[in-house]
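Inverse folding, one chain.
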């Protein structure tokens, strides 16, 4: 009995020493085998946008001296599939016929290449674009949010701070934001709209906590209806990239990279009119009353009163 057991163990050890034959998988391009709607459902972009992303990554890879051992289109598809689903790498690999270790490697490589493009696609408006954004919002432009982001009327994210733990208060994120310093220094003209989690300042308008009179009520209603755009923006972002709805099982640095890349790709999709539709949000149910004193200053309250008198008194 013991001799038979030893023979089995010896045979298993021998089998482990024998090199496994290489398996060459079919790595055909899924973009050539699926219809456009099927491609969008799996990768959250249309084929022409995906090829555009591939070309961007190819150019960025050349600039950084990177090389990819497998076709770049498969690398990009693997990363887009990961962002679109948040699935395990083994599941992502089954979609494009790649092994889990390969998916891990290419997601890191493509993620790093896309990260280098962030400043090209996430940038606060300047020049004539500032005037256009103000016209779209009336006299106001942009929205800080709990995740440290600002958007415009086209749902484009124009500023994003992706570096703080999830429990950090949004007011603290804003205090450390480089965009805030630009407003403080007078480099940017106009208003940001925010909820009551932020302090009312001369450049950031927030709701009245306890509105008195019809003018203040109308101001609150207009601010809420306009500011809801940022909630819709994040709805679009999470609808396209389901990875943002799940826990990212990676280092904080890599998690920040993935989130920033989602924002980059979101803006790229808007530029190319390759968008995801979401249900509208009722602004009445989205007033975001925090009930916390975040330190409104006198200049901010005076500016808010001026706007209320100029635009909301009848």
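Residues assigned per position:
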């Amino acid at each position: 009995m013991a001799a038979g057991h030893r023979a089995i163990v010896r045979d298993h050890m021998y089998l482990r020493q024998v090199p496994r034959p290489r398996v060459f998988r079919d790595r055909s391009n899924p973009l050539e085998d699926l219809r456009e709607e099927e491609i969008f459902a799996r990768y959250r972009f249309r084929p022409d946008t995906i090829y555009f992303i591939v070309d961007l990554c190819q150019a960025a890879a050349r600039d950084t001296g990177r090389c990819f051992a497998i076709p770049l289109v498969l690398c990009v598809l693997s990363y887009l599939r990961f962002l679109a689903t948040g699935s395990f790498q083994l599941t992502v690999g089954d979609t494009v016929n790649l092994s889990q270790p390969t998916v891990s490697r290419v997601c890191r490589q493509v993620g790093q290449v896309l990260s280098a493009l962030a400043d090209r696609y996430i940038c606060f408006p300047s020049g004539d674009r500032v005037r256009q954004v103000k016209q779209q919002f009336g006299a106001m432009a942009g929205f800080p949010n709990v995740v440290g982001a600002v958007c415009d009327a086209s749902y484009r994210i124009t500023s994003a701070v992706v570096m703080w733990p999830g429990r950090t208060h949004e007011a603290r994120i804003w205090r450390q934001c480089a965009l805030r310093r630009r407003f403080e220094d007078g480099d940017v003209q106009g208003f940001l709209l925010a909820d009551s989690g932020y302090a009312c300042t001369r450049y950031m308008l927030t709701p009245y906590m306890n509105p008195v009179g019809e003018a203040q009520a109308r101001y609150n209603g207009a601010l809420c209806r306009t500011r809801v755009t940022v909630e819709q923006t994040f709805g679009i972002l999470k609808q396209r990239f389901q990875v943002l709805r799940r826990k990212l099982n990676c280092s904080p640095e890599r998690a920040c990279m993935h989130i920033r890349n989602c924002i980059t790709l979101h803006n790229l999709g808007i530029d190319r009119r390759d968008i995801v539709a979401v249900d509208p949000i009722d602004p009445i149910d989205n007033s975001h009353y925090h009930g916390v004193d975040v330190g409104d200053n006198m200049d901010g309250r005076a500016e808010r009163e001026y706007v209320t008198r100029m635009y909301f008194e009848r």
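The radius of gyration is 25 Å. The mean pLDDT is 83.
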